[in-house]
Design goal:
Strand content: 15-25%
Helix content: 40-55%
CATH superfamily of one domain: NAD(P)-binding Rossmann-like Domain
Distance between the termini: 49 Å
CATH architecture of one domain: 3-Layer(aba) Sandwich
Oligomer: single chain
Bound molecules: nicotinamide-adenine-dinucleotide, thymidine-5'-diphosphate
Shape: globular
Length: about 350
């Protein structure tokens, strides 16, 4: 099969590219990525040597570029990871999120309609369900939970999900959607909680925890997410949504303290800073559908995954030092300078 992976130079997309190259050697993997601040060709350096891998630089909201992708590569499957993905950036500048996440998805769907496709898979997020209260641990997001978004990021992802479902129903595009909880692992851009805290701790810099650090996220090791997507594109049913999560809820402060503990750094590095606007309280996925229907289960326990992730950042200083020495500095100053 020819599999186009959009956004494959970012965190989860790149992990998915490596997952396919390792586990599906008869597939051809084509990464289509605009290389925004979050895309990094160095992440794909090993893939570039593989004969069944090809990188094409392009923007999913550019109709001509997407047409050319479809006519030259003839994809059987498109997995759409390409997105603006950071909530804090969406609060600062929503418009770019609408262009990439909504228009970009619609351009890809139009190409699927025009050229035909065996499967379009939309990589979505549990954030489309909004949040759950902290004092009702018995509540979880299921696939039938109402969409109820809080940030421009989650609103743009929910809009894209609705378009995918509309194109499925109206034009018969064979499409699936996965809604996953927070991922962590190698190649995670250091604007997100876990890599930011690891790198700041390694540099003996303050660890900025929003509010009181009580917000809860449901963490999943990135490889488990990649395996779920691989199962859905091969065995999932057209038109279905699959929630992906590993019942691993943690308060932010507990995650931060765990990172400090593993690295042998003092808790005095923690600094409580002004809370995020509209900050979602708790995310928690009920993954029973994908477990029962496709036999997926997470394999990596958080205690192991977080150690693996920390080791990866310790061993790959070159990768993240280049990132934090560039425009990231201005981003950091803007987000955290006066917080
Ligand atoms: P990321 O920000 O690390 O990577 C995004 C990638 O998309 C980058 O390589 C970037 O260059 C590329 N891109 C951005 N705009 C593009 C455009 N217009 N055209 C082509 N490429 C473009 O994101 P991530 O964390 O890897 O997330 C990937 C997907 O998974 C996103 O759709 C996100 O909504 C979803 N998701 C993420 C998480 C998470 O915890 N990170 C959880 C659930 C779902
Ligand atoms: P993040 O990694 O941005 O993912 P998301 O908002 O999509 O869940 O943030 C995870 C949690 O960590 C979220 O509750 C916000 C919090 N957070 C901090 O406390 N400090 C930080 O510097 C960052 C980036 C996030």
């Amino acid at each position: 099969m020819n599999i186009v992976v959009t956004g494959g130079a970012g965190f989860i997309g790149a992990n998915f590219v490596y997952f396919l190259l390792k586990n599906r050697p008869s597939d051809k993997v084509i990464c289509f990525d605009a290389l925004t601040y979050a895309g990094n060709l160095e992440t794909l350096a090993t893939a570039q040597f593989m004969p069944n891998f090809k990188f094409i630089r392009g923007d999913i909201s550019d109709r001509a570029a997407v047409d050319e992708l479809f006519t030259t590569m003839r994809p059987d499957v498109v997995v759409n990871f390409a997105a603006e993905s950071h909530v804090d950036r969406s609060i600062d500048d929503p418009e770019l999120f609408l262009r990439t996440n909504i228009i970009g998805t619609s351009v890809l769907l139009d190409a699927c309609k025009k050229y035909g496709i065996k499967r379009f898979h939309q990589v979505s997020t549990d954030e489309v369900y909004g949040d759950l209260p902290l004092d009702k641990p018995e509540l979880f997001f299921t696939e039938t939970t109402n969409l109820h978004t809080s940030s421009p990021y989650s609103a743009s992802k929910a809009s894209a999900d609705l378009l995918v479902q509309a194109y499925g129903r109206t034009y018969g595009i064979p499409a699936t959607i996965s809604r996953c909880s927070n991922n962590y692992g190698p190649y995670h851009f250091p604007e997100k909680l876990i890599p930011l805290m690891i790198i700041n701790a390694l540099n003996d810099k303050k660890l900025p925890v929003y509010g009181e650090g009580k917000n809860v996220r449901d963490w999943l090791y990135v490889e488990d997410h990649c395996r779920a997507i691989d199962m859905i594109i091969r065995h999932g049913r057209d038109g279905e949504v699959y929630n992906v999560g590993g019942h691993n809820e943690r308060a932010n402060i507990d995650v931060v303290e765990m990172i400090l503990h593993i690295l042998g750094k003092p808790e005095s590095l923690i600094e409580f800073v002004t809370d995020r606007k509209g900050h979602d309280l708790r995310y928690a996925i009920d993954p029973s559908k994908i477990e029962h229907e496709l036999g997926w289960k997470p394999k990596v326990k958080f205690e192991d995954g977080i150690k693996r992730t920390i080791d990866w950042y310790v061993e790959h200083e070159d990768w993240w030092k280049k990132i934090i020495s560039g425009e990231y500095q201005q981003y950091y100053e803007k987000m955290y300078g006066n917080r």
